[in-house]
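HUMAN:
Sorry, I am quite new to this. Are you able to go through these amino acid letters and fold codes? The numbers rather puzzle me.
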Amino acid sequence: MSTLQDLTPGTWTVDAAHSEVGFIARHLMVTKVRGTFEEFSADVVIAEPFEDSSVTATVQLASVDTRSDDRNAHLRSADFFDVENNPEMTFTSTQVSSDKLVGDLTIKGVTQQVVFNLDFNGVTPDPWGGTRAAFEATAEVNRKDFGLTWNVAVDGGNMLVSEKIKLNLDIQLVQQQADAS
């Protein structure tokens, strides 16, 4: 099994075809609604030492997919993401360690610090002469902290949508080759 020490310093980019940016919200406080964002990118600079590494990421909010066209449209509306005025969600790391990724998450112009629990899944050569690495990261945020306040009270004292949202990242990185010039 490979370790973080097996990561070669340099620039790595996300392989979106083999990665997922997802979230989980509670619906009526009893079931989970899962969603993903289909369009995202990130640059990761692996440094020596690893703690000097950095991550910058951008997610296109209009690419949200919860397997419901009506819910997707509602999430894109001014009630939630307001993608017409705020098309992107961004993340910039401020601290990296072997088990945590800390950074500034910006949604609808509001920036909050988020702490992701980080799991390194390994590094391996690929069949095309490149190098791949994989990480999983999870965090929990309060959507109201980002101005996502829309909700509906239902009988029994519950709300339609939970305030707490779980973020799940399953990321495969591709090491970029140094320019030979």
The domain at 4-175 is CATH 2.40.128.110 (Lipocalin).
